[in-house]
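Most newcomers find our protein records easier to grasp once they have seen one. A learned vocabulary of local backbone shapes supplies the integers on the structure line. An example says more than a description, so a record of this kind follows:
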Amino acid sequence: MKPFLLLASRDDDVAADGEHAAFLRGGGLADHELHRVRMEAGPLPRIDLDDYSGVIVGGSPYCSSDPEEEKSDAQVRVEKEISGLLDEIVERDMPYLGACYGVGTLGVHQGAVVDTTYAEQVSAVPVTLTDAGRADPLLAGVPDEFRAFVGHKEACTVLPEHAVLLASSPTCPVQMFRVRTNLYATQFHPELDAAALVERIRVYEDSGYFPAGQSQAVIDEVSRAVVTHPGTVLRNFVLRYGR
């Protein structure tokens, strides 16, 4: 099998390595089956998409809807490089799964409105599949309603007309969508289990993903949550496109 490409942009090593491990574990992938590029660390190396089964974009501290003057040089560069790579990915309809920050990257690239209207603090939220979601192969084995881990400062407010809404939640109408046949983005995290999320909460406890001083309460809440189905999306992606 050709490896999958993981485009990461977390500048904290604990968070970055935890995310990498979560995608390996959740996707049932060996180390050599997931090639990670930490985009925040330096310019994107030359990428030959023919070398990969598909592309995965992890979460990020970046928000695509931030005012341009507030973005760091690294964020501006990362956004430009991902957009350039997405030109080819979309043209080829290459397998793509963007988790959380994937909504900001694929969504903005395709003309969606992404802003802070439907931000969600770190929690487990109820997600419901649309009719299109029930028929989509990446959601095979996922019930019509399930709980998923979220935590984001921006989300998709308006999808482009050519995108297909696959899943929604009461507090965030766009939880998963598809473009063309093989390009997917989820607002929820298909790679996370409770232990991995707790580690991430501790890393980002002062970053505005929940009220200040509430990290232990958030940890207690997500630790009690029963979240079992989002990982099926990641596993289905690997099984469907691994080649």
Remarks:
- Residues 4-241 form a domain with the Rossmann fold fold (CATH 3.40.50.880).
- The mean pLDDT is 96.
- The longest strand covers residues 120-129.
- The first helix runs from residue 13 to 27.
